[in-house]
Amino acid sequence: MPKTLYIDGRWVSAVAGGTRDIHCPADGRPVGTVDEATAADTEAAIAAARRAFDAGDWPATPAFERGRLLLRVADALIERKDEFARAESLDTGKRIYESELDIDDIAASFRYFGTLAGHDAGRVVDPGLPDVVSRVVKEPVGVCGMITPWNYPLLQVAWKVAPALAAGNTFVLKPSELTPHTAILLMDVLEKAGLPAGVGNLVLGAGADAGAPLSESDDVDLISFTGGLVTGRIIAAAAAPSVKKVALELGGKNPNIVFSDADFDAAVDNALNAAFVHSGLVCSAGARLVVHESIHDRFVDELVRRAKQIRMGGPFDDDVDTGPLISAEHRDKVTAYVKAGIDEGAVLRCGGTWPEGELASGYFYSPTVLDECTSGMSVVQEEGFGPVVTVETFTTEDEAVAIGNDTRYGLAAGVWSQDAGLVERVAARLRHGTVWINDFHPYLPQAEWGGYGRSGNGRELGPTGLGEYQELKHIYQNLRPAVTGWFPQR
Ligand code: NAD
């Protein structure tokens, strides 16, 4: 039995004895076997996290000391970067170079929250009254359930685990069943960094079995979920009866708006990055290109010319630009999504195929450009989550903003122009959680990340990302207690 669940400070197997084989999506090769938890394992993990929280030692540990532990984790991640990056690439099929960048980003998140811990213990309030002291203090929420996706497996985990520990919570993590290996390695790092038993717990397995108890349990105080809209709705509904805190980081359908005076080469190059980096498996992918009609033909011709040259391949192959999708089922979904777009009237300019030859054993899908799209098409409104970009045109600034906001999602958007006033006006009117001006994709651990509308609620990263894991308590003290006289004195 693999013993890959980490519960109450011990590595254990699933009680029902289930296991799952993990395969690399680039070529189908087996990369490991892990335990497959069921509800019983998750309930044991919740009980351990509850005991550790209620015992009070971790919440009472000075915040700076909790922060120091996170800084040790950041250092260990960099020391073990090759091991982590290799595990991430084998699980996801993404290029090793990208996985290495991810590990740098993950270490940066631990470092950011390690440094932030204890810097803001609350505030003193001016009560406007004599002989009263009033203050608002920050406390941990309690036991946190965390459920994460497969596209950036450890990065999404880090954005939850680091602030939760900084704030003094305990947690149960359930990463995607498809990409478990870096979460296992992280628990090893946390253990070696000195995390007390029960404070951090890991269960692996399918969402409906191993994940669902985290939403439902009365012993979990907060659930933080990153993943798709449909799952987010199920989790929010399951969490409602216990009225726990719910944070949702869901999908996006992110407009990348290019005005006629944009730096042409930079805008084309970044449009490629926006849509096709990591095969478009990015919640903030610029999958909706909105280009001024006067430059449409030249822009799309150049985009298509370069998209056709993108080289797909395995994570350790040289000269590869991008990797596979995560599974056969996922590739079928992307295929159906593109077909629906073409049926609705979109014009396929490139892609829409599965590469053959030596790539046939992986779940590759060629970079795809769908031209002549309009806002009403499902392919424009729904998140395809693959290497697919739709193209729409606009003529006026108002029209660009209207198209950019014509989505139920609201995660991220890009605006390209050399007119400083115009980009500021447009950025101010776009209803998205992140707006990039003359760039696409960068994020900062110190800046909040999250979505408007159906892209979710709450924010990760930044001071607010720590605040998600804190309760606020108002403590009011009367320095001269006295009889109020409100009620008869008898
Ligand atoms: P998914 O919703 O299928 O699964 C996410 C996680 O939820 C997995 O761990 C899964 O096992 C679990 N799960 C599934 N059903 C569950 C249930 N009933 N109860 C509890 N847990 C359950 O998403 P995915 O396919 O892994 O990831 C892709 C999605 O994630 C995309 O929509 C993408 O946009 C989104 N995403 C968003 C962000 C963001 O920051 N907003 C970041 C990364 C990914």
The total of beta strands comes to 20
Q: Strands of the largest sheet, in order across it?
A: 14-15-16-13-12-17-18
Mean pLDDT: 97
Oligomer, anyone? single chain
Q: How many DSSP H or I helices? A: 16
Specify Rg, calculated over alpha carbons. 24 Å
Shape: globular
Tell me the major beta sheet. Answer: 7 strands, mixed
- Small molecules bound in the structure, each named once: nicotinamide-adenine-dinucleotide
**Amino-to-carboxy terminus distance:** 72 Å
Description:
The protein has 490 residues and is an alpha/beta fold. Helices cover 39% and strands 20% of the residues. α4 crosses α5 (96-116), α5 runs parallel beside α6 and α10 crosses α11. The chain starts with a strand and ends in a 12-residue tail after the last strand. The model has no long low-confidence stretch (mean pLDDT 97). The site of nicotinamide-adenine-dinucleotide (NAD) has 33 residues, from α8 and α9. Nicotinamide-adenine-dinucleotide binds next to α8 and α9.
